[in-house]
Amino acid sequence: MGGNIGLPILAQDPLPEGGVYVLELSSYQIDLTQSLDCEVAVLLNITPDHLDRYDNFWAYAASKARLFEMQSEGRLAVFDQSLESAIDEIGISVRDTTCHVDRVYFAEVASQSDWPALQGPHNAQNAGAAIGVCEHLGLTGDQIEQGLRTYAGLPHRMERIRDKDGVAFVNDSKATNPTATAPALAAFAKIRWICGGQTKTDNLDECAPHFGHVRKAYTIGEASELFAKLLSPHMNVAECVTLERAVGEAAAEAESGDTVLLSPACASFDQFRDFEERGDRFRELVGAL
Predict the structure, then answer these.
(1) 124-143 pLDDT, tens digit each
(2) Which domains does the chain have, with CATH numbers?
(3) How far apart are the first and last CA of the chain?
(4) 63-101 residue pLDDT tens
(5) Which of 195, 211, 263, 270 is deepest in the core (most CB within 10 A)?
(6) How far apart are CA 259 and CA 282, in angstroms?
(7) Contact yes or no for 106/122 (Cβ under 8 A)
(8) What is the pTM of this model?
(9) Cα(54)–Cα(94) distance, rounded to whole angstroms?
(10) Can you tell me the distance from the alpha carbon of 92 to that of 101, in angstroms, rounded to the nearest whole number?
């Protein structure tokens, strides 16, 4: 496993044949290669991001969709059916008769409640994609179900780090924009939401449908004042500025059944080296409660 998760793949020795190599690739990494012929290529979603690097949203989307363009005959492309029109508009033809790239849509998932580390609508999407890939690679239904049921999750991605007096503490520091935070807000019923940092947008529109799940917001970082202004018409808000203060106040006010959720909807660079350092600090603060 490599790319954005684990080891930088281009820095490794040549990989031996016969293994299954899973690469999680950013558009930046895709831009750097001309010959990445994936046996299975998966495009989970396309939402505006990194637009400082690209001329417009469609240029960014085309960068991601190049994964399909680089596939040779007989390969598999996995994506949500809702992306089909976007892919066609970009000009990446998954159905080109000269390419013969097969395609499969994400599977519908029904047993998500049995997968403790895979809650929320975004993880339903992730699981649906994984099921399609695993079926193509020859795994049985029982093997796939056991993998989903026993999967422990990844750090900083809806990571449940502690339960204290009936309060759950969840580290979703990887959510660096509102689109990434929205599924976390959808996944829990009573949330103490720690949000803010170095903002990528001047709104929280993607999160708005789930504001009803938030009991109170605790804003931090450069976006503390902006987010407080955006959120105060919809919920109670505390401008905390620092993560230390936000964790302290949220923990002190939380009641049994609440979830204290760090899902910043922002980059971390105003106060931390990266989202991982931010999530590690959250874990330390929660552990010290």
Answers:
(1) 999 999 999 999 999 999 99
(2) 2-150 (3.40.1190.10), 159-287 (3.90.190.20)
(3) 34
(4) 888 899 899 888 999 988 877 777 776 666 555 434 457
(5) 195
(6) 14
(7) no
(8) 0.71
(9) 23
(10) 11
